[in-house]
Amino acid sequence: MRLLVVEDDIRVAAALSSVLRRHGFHVELAHTAGDALDRLDTDPDVILLDLGLPDHDGFELCGRIRAVRDVPVIMVTARSDVRSRIHGLHLGADDYVVKPYDLGELIARIHVVSRRRSAAQGRGADRAGPPAGVLIAGRVHLDPQRRAVTVDGVPANLTRKEFDLLTVLAREPGVVFRREQIISEVWNTSWQGNQRTLEVHVASLRAKLKVPGVIETVRGVGYRIAACDGPPAGRPALGPVR
Amino acid sequence: MRARLIWVLLTLMACILLALGIPLGTSIVREQQNALFQDRVDDTAHFAALAGDALPGTLSTLRTEITRYQRVYGISAAVVGRDGGLWITTDGYPGNDSGDVPTALRQAFAGRHSADSPTIWPWSGRTLTVSAPVVQSGDVVGAVVTVSSTRRMRSAVLHDWVLLCSAEVVALLLCLVLAFTLARWMLRPVEALDAVTHTIATGRLDARVAAAGGPPEIRRLAASFNEMAGQVETAMERQRAFVADASHQLRNPLAAVMLRLEGLAMSLPPGSEEEMQSVRQEAHHLTRVLDDLLDLALAEQGGATVERFDLAALVEERVTAWSAVAELRDIQVQRIWDGPVRGIGDATGLGSAFDAVIDNALKFSPAGSVVRVEVSEVGDNVEVRVTDQGPGVLPEELARIGDRFWRSPRHQNVDGSGLGLAVARTLLTASGGRLEMTAGARGGLVVTMTIAAERPSAVTA
């Protein structure tokens, strides 16, 4: 997933892009409004927009981005007052996050706005997973409609939770899904005690798929499915996780 | 002050009118009496002259004339001999011994005409007695006495007096109008000053006194007041801007720190999750302090809207919202009020202030204890009183509780920013209310929030 981070504070920008890259996102940085408009050509999936920019007001930039491109915008700003939030949402922002934010929450919001957008555009399915016939790591085939998984054409006998887990990860190959996000979506709970359960399910899923490296562990964060198909056309390859 | 001013002016005016009116009233009496007296003196002298001319012959002509005089004018008269013998009398003559008659006779026998008699007031029923000596060849042989009723004179005096009093009342009314006008002119700028002071006290710092005439001294006072209000506003604005800017400027670095932390967390060896979690919690705590600081700056900005609302309903709603937290900590919240308690203030601000107060109470209450929430009307005010059974504060700490960032050294480890009660106090003060903290009778802390009560005839400022 490609993100365009528009942030004038270079320290925040550096920290944010570094940590987002480590989560498997492809991050473009822009420090000014002009810069941001130029970088719209990179076709980002989600834009993170700071309101305090040196050349233009962030609200104005949001309007201009909206005018040229239909891309989800999350306003990430130090302005916490309700009036600014409402104004930002009116101008077409899909979400509004106040600094300092929790990284997990920011990533969850990024996933939400991109998922909603893809659902609206009809090129993706809803939260149940990718469209029929997704190929993972060249060998694993996942059919969300029939809830069936085959490895090299051989059906794999997955439990319901294992299937849900694989579906979540397959939504964005290459992107790291944080543990709390997976637990929320698969187990419908925010209880951190389920982490152990998650590990057990991941281990059993790996054993059943028998494809080494199909589910990668990103230490301290979560899991992702290797994007070893190579990036889709026009998308730059993702860097290594570590 | 208006009443006092008007009373002073009216009293002064009344004194002046009395000082002028009493001599004038007296002189009216004197004047009327003099005219009557002079008239009677002339008549009496005329009769005396006639008697003197007629004597020692018969007095029959004089008798006819005097009788006719009595019949026409109603004035009784008598001609009295030196020996007291009544030579001629008419109807109504009281006799030689009654009233002023003996004095008048004595004067006449002494050869003198009647001197002016004492003032006859309208309320005294006295008659006017006038005498003249009857002189025959240089000797006083008798006297003519006329005794006239003063009723007509007295009613004429009363009539004049009524006119005089009416004039005085009119003058007094004019003075009243003048006093009112003067008081209004003097007090209008003072009232404007009072209204603006109240507005500023309720948090609208941009209120100013408009130039509204009045005495130059008060105009100068208004100008000085505006100047002072400007200074206060600037100082407050600067302080508020400082807090707002400071918390704004802290958000970016704090965001960077938290992001770097997350990056670092990804490189940590397994098993350091717990350590990492506590670092995250610290960062979140710092964020909360920042948010509270910004809330405080916003609360100080004022702009509170004053409205009438049911305090009990508001508290009920807030207590319900907090009941989950209370249940989780095994604390019972007692609600003590009956029926609506209507007050005037900023409902939103009061709701937020109550949140901070009950949050504080629940935080410090031990499990299994009771937090009492009372809503009641006390005199002209309505108050919400929250009593907890927590550790309370020491007497010397009472003055500091509610100060920004102050936390009792004994409770440094309870979660919180140390700004909650400060925000509550600021929110309440903004709408003219107040927040007080006292030690409970059996330990614990009692927080009382007070706002003005709504009275049916109450006027909102």
Structure description:
The complex is a heterodimer of chains A (242) and B (461). Chain A has 242 residues and is of the alpha/beta class. Chain A folds into two domains: 120 residues, Response regulator (Rossmann fold); 92 residues, Winged helix-like DNA-binding domain superfamily/Winged helix DNA-binding domain (Arc Repressor Mutant, subunit A, Orthogonal Bundle). Chain A is built from eight helices and twelve strands. In chain A, the strands form three sheets. Chain A has a five-stranded parallel beta sheet with strand order 2-1-3-4-5, sandwiched between helices. Chain A has a four-stranded antiparallel beta sheet with strand order 6-7-8-9, with helices on one face. In chain A, strand 1, helix 1 and strand 2 form a beta-alpha-beta unit. In chain A, helix 6 crosses helix 7. With 461 residues, chain B is of the alpha+beta class. Chain B folds into three domains: 154 residues, PAS domain (Beta-Lactamase); 102 residues, Signal transduction histidine kinase, dimerisation/phosphotransfer (DHp) domain (Helix Hairpins, Orthogonal Bundle); 147 residues, Heat Shock Protein 90, CATH 3.30.565. Helix content of chain B is 55%, strand content 16%. Chain B contains nine helices and eleven strands. In chain B, strands 5, 6, 7, 8, 9, 10 and 11 form a seven-stranded mixed beta sheet that branches. In chain B, strand 8 and strand 9 form a beta hairpin. In chain B, helix 4 runs parallel beside helix 5. The longest helix of chain B is centred in the first third of the chain and has 53 residues. The radius of gyration of chain B is 48 Å and the shape is rod-shaped. At the A-B interface, helix 1 of A face helix 5 and helix 6 of B.
